[in-house]
Amino acid sequence: MHLMLTQCFPPKLGGIENMMGGLAEAIVASGAELVVLADGKADPSAARPGYQVRRYIGFKPFRRWWKARVAERITRRGKVDVVFADSWKSLERFQPSGQPVICLAHGMEFPPKPTEAKAARIRAALAKATRVVANSHYTASLAAPYVDARRLSVVTPPVQPQPAADPAAVAELEARFGTGPTIASLCRLEPRKGIDRLIEAMTMRPSLASARLLIAGDGPDRKRLEDMARSSPVARNIHFLGRVDEREKAALLTFCDVFAMPSRREGASVEGFGIVYLEAGWYGKPALGGTDGGAADAIIDGETGLLCDGANGEMVAEALERLLTDSDLRARLGAAAESHARSQVWARKVGEYLPASVPNAMDLPVTTGL
């Protein structure tokens, strides 16, 4: 039996939630039994076929303590083959009973300037892990000060197979926005995602002024971004779609010509990977990402998309212009993006997370590129 400790799990929305949900489905598909201990209220309508999910609510310190005690009781029975944790925070109050422990690392959980007390907490938690799996080389560099290199490796997150777009939904977008070059972005609206640089770029090149920018998602930065868009000379071409469901997302990524999320660092906030770049690639769309963070592991620069300094508006505008005005480049990058994305599915990558892929954790090679 496998045991999973996680703060983030479906039906909650988010990148880590999708990651842990996909890992759970892949573990069960591999033939293993699974028990998930997750934060949040029990929701019978969100029951997961094939495995058990136990939910925990209440004051965070007590919730973590209680979940750890339950996990220890389960592991002491001797039936657990491996424990998975979504981050060091899920290991902090848990004491393993000799089973292999795989801890994932995403990036945001490692502060750039931690206090000595915080750093000691992270090191102590990760000392319990047989293996720490980072989602990008950038994230691995953040985790490196806290864990022995022999126990640290990089496995880029798999993408869930994406649904085919509903032709009617695509037709709805065309009827609403017309035809012409289209840039799409889909993310939680916060400064580090770089949506403000996309809005600014629309007026920096004549070729971009006639393009449409479709922004899907919601978040704390939405009002500021909408104010920027309203004051733009090309405001009529910038549209906020709000939250989209899977049907609408598939239609948007089919309808657009280019996907763009030129992420950058904002204080302690930075993109650890960016699974949405692969989701866009699934539909044959090249992506534009930022060089700061883990996008370089999601986008192969010059092959499946382009990378640029997401904090530099001129560089964002230049990269967007290249993608929108060079149809041959766009087609080549889009085809490669689709091929790459469809090779990054759970069925092909789950073995990279399972202990069987690491016979002896102490023989792990030092990860290169840190």
Q: Can you walk me through this structure?
A:
The protein is α/β, with parallel strands linked by helices and 370 residues long. It has two domains: 2-158 and 346-363, Glycogen Phosphorylase B (Rossmann fold, 3-Layer(aba) Sandwich), CATH 3.40.50; 167-342, Glycogen Phosphorylase B (Rossmann fold, 3-Layer(aba) Sandwich). Helix content is 38%, strand content 16%. The strands form two sheets. It has a seven-stranded parallel sheet with strand order 3-2-1-4-5-6-7, with helices on both faces. The chain has a six-stranded parallel sheet with strand order 10-9-8-11-12-13, with helices on both faces. α5 links the parallel β6 and β7 (152-154). The longest helix is centred in the N-terminal third of the chain and has 17 residues, at 60-76. It is globular and about 65 Å long. The two termini are 33 Å apart. The model is unreliable at 357-370 (pLDDT under 50).
